[in-house]
Write a structure and sequence with these properties.
The structure holds 3 protein chains of 3 kinds. Chain A is an all-alpha fold. Chain A is built from 10 helices and 2 strands; from the N terminus they run ααααββαααααα. By secondary structure, chain B is an alpha/beta fold. Classes of the chains: A mainly alpha, B alpha/beta, C mainly alpha. Chains in contact: A-C, B-C.
Chain lengths: 307, 251, 333
């Protein structure tokens, strides 16, 4: 265990955290404003990756592919909201769960039909594909730094947007009391559609950014979705600030936990059982963290509403 | 031997942010006494009831139920010690029959409910107690009706029956006559008159006829503070009370 | 009164009658199915319906939580998986008798339900759904990380459990009837639970938890007990599942499985118990049929689910009830 390894894993943890934030932000906004549980958020992330792959093969330009993919996920999310989800607002959460679960089944299969079941890949743009020397003996992939940077940039933009623009104010108000906002004459339907589409786009952005590192395949959104849920539950449903802090926390705990679990356990037990128990314990870590947080604060660390 | 009061609140305080909703309220209710709490809307009457019943935690002060300090106890524990309440916004179980609503209230204080076997709906003891309570409020003939199908006034009477059946030490009644028509109100006043002396009752009400017909003592709550407290005639004549509240209500 | 409350409907009402006729029909059909299947040489039906019955056990347990206690849990598959792994792990150590494996399955599932329930039930609504989902995933990842017990690939079980040393579960026919017996016992137990004092408190708390609290009920304790009971029943389903497939895998505990369980309950109609059986049968039979038609059957299934949720809230039983109601009115009762 060296300092280099620690720094690399910390950076990896930040990268995961930033990715989780991009996905959780949309999820928590949609919960907070529309009280809508969207299990299908993971497929928006997946679609972002798939759209980027297609647009890249059409244009050969990563940036263009990214922008087109963002547009596509925005449109797709908006259409989904308009056609299906808006009919489910105000209904039981159970209905949301089932309907969006159905969407997941549908889209995971549809993606297989359109793109095939084999994993696809998206190359990193040439200029960003190398590694950079961060300090003596520490080489870190540029692309991962780009992910961290862009994620933090989005966080800042989101903060400015939500706290310092008129629309952001409406979103915050709608998050606290939607009927009141509607009564004030705001077109609440359009606000909801905007929030939903924007959240979908954020998830799609995460998908595009991670695509060069992971493989793009059906169902890739499912695991990260659960992590995103853990993030917003710990952070507090409806709170972007909570999502940010929780996302970074989870990214770091999960990554560092997995990297060092075996080593830490070796301090108290023999190497062989440590190697067996370690990975299992590491997988459980964030769920244990979530259990502790919810036991102490049943509505998360920074709940947006008093519920 | 001195019997302890059914309820003794001392220095109860509660605030929401900068707003003080309960301002050092001290109050005693003797067994069998019907104590009315009146005051304008927003005076904090329901908040007071919520604190006594345990749904809201006061910032400071103590609540003693029949000699037992319940300030730290959760709501269900207080109910088991003999505290029953009705709600300002009707809160009956609409999916159950009228009889079952009251039987459920009786069941809570009749042994363990962690019984997995046996049909609770046919338990003779619970149903008999429930029927007796329904008889008291005049709803015995509606026993089999689904509670959701009752008229508003009947639902208010049902809430009363649910409070009575457990033979509580103290009943908290939050505007039982809210929204009831003239006949229903007369009926409820008659019922409450029959209950007086058997249970200690804290009655929050806006209907002044009912209050002055029933109350042994009245406390006037203004902005969370007890402005005056005493027998009805004294309160009615109190110039502060007339100025702050009764002047308008008696018009 | 809607069929949703059929299990506790007043005697003499249509819901009450439906509540007796439908389950009676279901179990009668299940009892004679093997004879029909073997006579017509459709032996695979035996295995298929055994699976239906096993999942119905879990679905009944889930209906207790969803339909009667209003606890929307998205992690019920975890208990099924835990029960299955109890069987698998014991078998891998040479212990293959049901007299040990079954109590172990129930105990593990029940214990996990108790410990996680204590935390989960402090939350409500959206938080509850998500924390149950996350705990379910925790068991999934833990099972995947258990390299000595197959990890990701799962664990094969050498042979089915013996019962007191007797190879009673080995033949498809006898296993079928054991599964049927388990389902019958589960159904009757849940039916009894729901009308008992305990069940009545749960149903009251579903409707108005604040009201129940002020009547003197510690709602949290009742919900926890229900959660543990449902967990243990699901553990029974896991025991049967492990024996049926002679294989255990982390997939048994995935959140997709939990979602499927919810759908099975909703499809049949929440809050009737027999609806859970009907819904499970509908789901698994449709899946079996559609996957024979096309490998992309989920493309059809997904939208179908969405439509059902949006339009047919009472599930299949709700539809039956509605039809029966129209027939009654048409007859002029």
């Amino acid at each position: 265990m060296s300092l280099t390894f620690l720094i690399v894993q910390t950076l990896n943890g930040l990268q995961l955290g930033v990715l989780l934030f991009l996905i959780a932000a949309g999820l928590t906004l949609v919960f907070g404003v529309m009280d809508f549980i969207n299990l299908a958020h993971g497929v928006q992330y997946m679609l972002g990756a798939y759209f980027a792959v297609t647009f890249y093969s059409l244009t050969g330009n990563f940036l263009l592919a990214l922008l087109l993919a963002l547009a596509a996920t925005l449109v797709f999310g908006t259409v989904l909201e308009f056609l299906i989800f808006r009919h489910l607002y105000g209904r039981d959460h159970l209905d949301h769960v089932i309907a969006t679960f159905g969407i997941i089944l549908f889209l995971n299969s549809a993606v297989k039909i359109v793109w095939g079941a084999a994993p696809l890949s998206l190359p990193i743009p040439e200029v960003l594909s190398g590694s950079v020397l961060l300090m003596d003996g520490l080489l870190y992939p540029v692309w991962r730094l780009v992910i961290i940077g862009s994620g933090l940039a989005v966080a800042v933009l989101l903060y400015v947007f939500v706290n310092h623009t008129r629309i952001g104010m409406l979103v915050r108000a709608g998050s606290t009391h939607a009927p009141m906002v509607a009564a004030l004459g705001v077109n609440i339907g359009r606000l909801f559609t905007l929030v939903f589409g924007f959240g979908a786009m954020l998830a799609g952005f995460a998908g595009v950014m991670i695509a060069p590192i992971l493989s793009v395949e059906p169902g890739m959104g499912d695991t990260i979705l659960i992590l995103a849920f853990v993030v917003i539950v710990i952070g507090g449903v409806g709170s972007i600030r909570g999502a940010f802090i929780a996302a970074l926390l989870i990214g770091l705990v999960d990554t560092l936990g997995r990297s060092f679990a075996v080593d830490i356990l070796r301090l108290v037990m023999a190497p062989s059982p440590a190697r067996t128990v370690g990975p299992a314990l590491a997988s459980m870590l964030i769920y244990l963290l979530m259990a502790v947080v919810l036991y102490l604060r049943p509505t998360g660390l920074f709940p947006a509403r008093g519920r | 031997m001195v019997t302890e009061p059914a309820l003794a609140i001392s220095g109860l305080c509660k605030h929401f942010g900068g707003l003080v909703v309960t301002d050092s309220v001290t109050m005693t209710i003797e067994p069998g006494e019907l104590h009315a709490v009146i005051g304008p809307n927003g005076a904090g009457k329901t908040t007071l009831i919520n604190q006594i019943s345990g749904l809201l935690t006061p910032d400071s002060g103590s609540i003693v139920l029949a000699g037992r300090d319940v300030t730290e106890l959760p709501a269900h524990a207080r109910a088991k010690l003999g505290l029953a309440r009705s709600f300002q916004i009707t809160s009956v179980l609409t999916g159950f029959s009228v009889l079952e609503n009251v039987a459920l209230a009786a069941q809570a204080r009749a042994g363990s409910s962690f019984r997995f076997f046996g049909n609770a709906a046919t338990e003779p003891a619970l149903n008999a107690a429930a029927l007796a309570a329904l008889d008291e409020v005049g709803l015995a003939d509606r026993a089999k009706t689904a509670a959701g199908h009752l008229a508003h006034g009947e639902k208010r009477a049902l809430e009363l029956a649910m409070a009575i059946v457990s033979k509580p030490r103290l009943m908290l009644l939050d505007e039982p006559m809210a929204g009831t028509g003239h006949d229903e109100t007369e009926r409820l006043i008659a019922v409450l008159d029959r209950l007086k002396g058997r249970f200690a009752i804290l009655l929050v009400e806006h209907d002044m006829n009912a209050v002055f017909a029933l109350a042994d003592r009245i406390s006037v709550l203004i902005y969370g503070r007890v402005l005056a407290s005493g027998p009805p005639d004294a309160v009615r004549a109190d110039p502060q009370v007339v100025a702050a509240y009764l002047g308008d209500e008696m018009e | 009164m809607t069929p949703a409350t059929a299990a506790v409907a007043a005697p003499g009402t249509q819901s009450f009658r439906l509540g007796i006729i439908i389950p009676a029909l279901i179990f009668a059909l299940l009892a004679v199915l093997p004879a029909a299947a073997l006579a017509t040489a459709h032996d695979y039906l035996l295995d298929l319906f055994t699976r239906v019955m096993i999942f119905s056990v879990a679905a009944c347990a889930l209906d207790l939580l969803l339909g009667y206690a209003a606890l929307v849990t998205f992690g019920q598959a975890a208990f099924v998986g835990l029960g299955a792994y109890a069987v698998g792990i014991l078998a891998s150590h040479g212990i293959g008798d049901a007299l040990i494996a079954l109590p172990a399955a129930l105990a593990v599932a029940g214990l996990f339900a108790f410990v996680t329930g204590i935390v989960c039930l402090r939350t409500k609504g959206v938080y509850f759904i998500m924390i149950t989902l996350a705990f379910g995933q925790m068991t999934f990842f833990t099972a995947s990380a258990l390299a000595p017990y197959g990890g990701d690939d799962g664990l094969t079980i050498a042979s089915r459990s013996t019962i007191a040393g007797l190879r009673l579960l080995d033949s498809p026919l006898s296993f079928y009837y054991v599964a049927l017996a388990c389902l019958l016992v589960t159904f009757l137990f849940c039916r009894m639970l729901v009308v008992s004092r305990f069940g009545r408190v749960l149903r009251g708390a579903k409707e108005n938890p604040v009201r129940m609290t002020t009547l003197g009920y510690a709602v949290y304790r009742f919900q926890l007990a229900a959660y543990v009971v449902a967990g243990m029943i699901s553990g029974l389903a896991g025991f049967l599942l492990a024996n049926a497939t002679e294989f255990v895998s982390p997939a048994y505990m995935s959140w997709q499985r939990s979602g499927e369980l919810i759908i099975m309950v909703l499809l049949g109609g929440m809050g009737t118990l027999y609806g859970a059986i009907v819904g499970t049968a509908a789901y698994l039979l449709t899946e079996e049929w559609l996957s024979g038609v096309t490998e992309h059957w989920k493309v059809i299934f997904g939208p179908a689910l969405v439509l059902i949720v949006v339009f047919a809230r009472g599930g299949l039983i709700g539809a039956v009830g509605a039809v029966a109601e129209s027939a009654r009115r048409w007859r002029g009762d």
